[in-house]
Amino acid sequence: MKKQLFVLASLTFGVLTSTAQEVKFEEYKLDNGMHVILHKDNSAPVVTTSVMYHVGAKDENPERTGFAHFFEHLLFEGTKNIQRGDWFKIVAANGGQNNANTTDDRTYYYEVFPSNNLELGLWLESERLMHPVINQIGVDTQNEVVKEEKRLRVDNQPYGNLLAEVKERLFIKHPYKGTTIGKLEHLDAATLEEFKAFNKKYYIPNNAVLVVAGDIDIASTKKMIKDYFGPIQKGEPIVRNLPQEDPITQPLTGTAYDSNIQIPAVIAAYRTPSFKSRDAYVLDMISTYLSGGKSSVLYKKLVDEQKQALAVQAVNISQEDYGIYALFALPLGEVSLETLVAEMDEEIVKLKSDLISEKDYQKLQNIAENNFVSSNSSISGVANSLARYYMLYGNTNLINTEIDIIRSITREDIKAVANKYLNPNQRLILEYLPKKDDK
């Protein structure tokens, strides 16, 4: 499911002594347009079967938001050959595990099995694609599940609506202005025919990539894929013509309230380019420099030394069409939100005027390389990366070459990108406050 916006990831500092091994893969298309990627790794008797669909929250009717996330749940309900409620039982009984997740850009389903159950994984995903049962019982059941998830993860979670408030103000035209979980009243109002139409439009082989990774035999795997997925009918081509945003040239401000919090927060958010842009990689490095761990610039300054903040974070949320770069802070005691913004701005100005030290630069390179290697340290991680790089970046081999982009980033690039995007006239300042008691 979805990660929370401002949760600091654990970062490992230190020089990476090993280099990333090349991930070998083979890719091809079925006649129905389904893209297939195979990765053989016989080091452990495990196999991941996964399907990524190029459909997310940005593809929804603005009056029917939440459909993509809803289908993440709905397509586990059952198929013509899998009784309702049996999907997870079948997986568990055969020594496997499975899950799914949705973003604004894509939906991802996967199973991890002992390699002797590869065929079962392929059959399950082909059933999801070819024979889904979409009926009112399933819709009503999953509607309640989604409502409970929203209550737990958003409505009753401190700062749970923070990202939604930021997106709504940064995006005026593009559907990124909505949330992945959507509006529950839209799901309540939707008809069964609308759900069926959404499935027919987006859950088609020519809008999907199948990845099989792990302890496999290539020839027999190809035959099984052809047998299970080859007969699935190709869908109508999907044409996307999403609106582009006008540049932000004047400062934006806003105020939002949350009844689940007692400590206010302040967010300085900037609209940034797609994660396909090289600049997005640089912004990732800037985030690490500013708030990646207790030795980072903003943590040392605001939390450790000056004791002005309970927490502080810089985060780069990159997506297929645009990104959000956000600075976030919680004040300590009577420190004002304006003071926190000023203190964070001071460090941005330094980035824009001076090169970071060579020592800090090497540290950033080490962390970035370590993170890259770690993301592909498991079979399931490799499967996810292969699907994502093909579907969203249009270049499967980034699983091997992305590290070269990271290594090519210079201190001068960090300075230039900070100057390009992190400007006061290009941002939103949002005060996120405790909700006042209604009198």
TrEMBL record:
Record-annotated Peptidase M16 C-terminal domain positions: 190-366
Q: Could you say which residues form the signal peptide? A: 1-20
Cite the SUPFAM superfamilies for this sequence.
LuxS/MPP-like metallohydrolase (SSF63411)
The protein's matches in InterPro entries, at most eight in alphabetical order, are given as: Metalloenz_LuxS/M16, Pept_M16_N, Peptidase_M16, Peptidase_M16_C
Record keywords:
Hydrolase, Metalloprotease, Protease, Signal, Zinc
- Every copy of the Peptidase M16 N-terminal domain together lies at 36-179
GO aspect biological process, one term: proteolysis
The Swiss-Prot or TrEMBL record annotates one GO molecular function as: metallopeptidase activity
Gene3D superfamilies under this entry?
Answer: Metalloenzyme, LuxS/M16 peptidase-like
In terms of superkingdom, the source organism counts as: Bacteria
Q: Name one Pfam family in it.
A: Peptidase_M16
Instruction: List each coiled-coil range.
Output: none
| Name of the protein | Peptidase M16
